[in-house]
User: What shape does this take?
Amino acid sequence: MTHHRIDTFRIARLTLYMVTLLLLCMAVGCTEQKADVIPFVPKTVDLDLDYDEIKKRGKLVLLTENTSTSYYLYRGQAMGYDYELVKAFCKAHDLELETKVIGDLNEMFEMLNRGEGDLIAVNLAITAERLKKVKFTVPLAETKQVLVQRKPDGWRKMKKRHLRDSIMESPLELVGEEVHVHAYSSFYSRLMNLQEEAGGEINIIEAPGDIDSEELIRMVADGEINRTVADQNVAQLNNTYYPNLDIDCEISFPQNIAWAVRSNADSLLHELNSWLVKKSNAKRLAYTYDKYFKSRKSQKERIESEFSSFSGNRISVYDDVLRTEGNKLGWDWRMLAAMCYQESRFNPEADSWAGAFGLMQLMPLTAERFGIDSTMREGRNIEAGAKFLGYLENLWDDKVPDSLERVKFILASYNVGQGHVLDAMKLADELGYENEVWDDNVETALSLKSNPKYYSMDVVSHGYCRGSDATDYVKKVMTQYQHYLSLSL
Assistant: This one.
């Protein structure tokens, strides 16, 4: 992973962290234990939002974090152990999945209990304190807490006994030493208990909430802080990226890792548990765990890539041309990127059975109309696709005044043709739907165009089409776009 190039965001976070430490030092002398700090306890939720309501709206809202295990993007694709499993659950229950990436676990709990999310899916340990305010699913894994510390310089040439002498091997050695963890974490609670067991104070330094556990691990590896605590499964994975870390000192008994729901979301909890323990899902769960926690070479390749949201800030090799064409069009370039991913997975050699080609999967006649042929597959293909979108924008401009709604009409037209979408607009009006609103209105009417009862109506000019393909396309592009927005790429 290229850690020498610290981006602006990381610098800002690190600056905030150092300012926080300075203020702490000024307030308590940096050696005095903050005994009055209480791990975060969210307020009791009064919201009545359970599985039936979630099913009625057709969407589950996931709260997660951008880490190498829970959720990240790689070459434009959403990945992660927790994300993949939640997505599979939603597919099995005919639910759309909306993903919100939150950098602060404290905020995640608050959002859950405010109804701004339905499920927290991160590497979350079940603790007695958390059980007072949320409910957990059946365990997905079991892990221990380990001390993450840096090996000394020249460790590769050291004899094993000399190496062991230079690092901590017992949690009792933490007395009088500093450890950086989050105040609301299970690690904080364990360190507080360890103080009682060891009969001495540990200098527990609270990390800001927006610096996640994996960032603290990186900071130990890079010498910015001395040590932290992490779950063993996460520490083992990160040890692949940072071999100069020692993670052998265990400081807890095994703990269960699970997902969290609101304390009154009993039916959602039942659905999740039923799915997680289903025998037919056993292989899926085992495979997904191995993919992210045990197949470390593949995971390392993904995480260290410049096209990973965990360590890089690029979606594809075509980001620059997508930005340029997005600016010309007046669109967020990430919407073009979402289309490009959905059309071709950023493969310039992609061809469809119908003759569409290139990154934006243009049909030959459309491509010719906008100045390219099948030999022009990279930047020129994106340029032609953007011109086609501009043409569609002009056609829809006076028909759908709301710009956010209009984008969905344009996307559907790009996929199935403007004539069929205009038919759907008229059909929606005929059937009593709102003809300038896409979701559950014109979208529904377009899906009906595969039914003779509807495509034979007088208001329909262009006959049959598989409208559900186009409506699925719009949903997938908009979902992909939300992924890019959530990680500020």
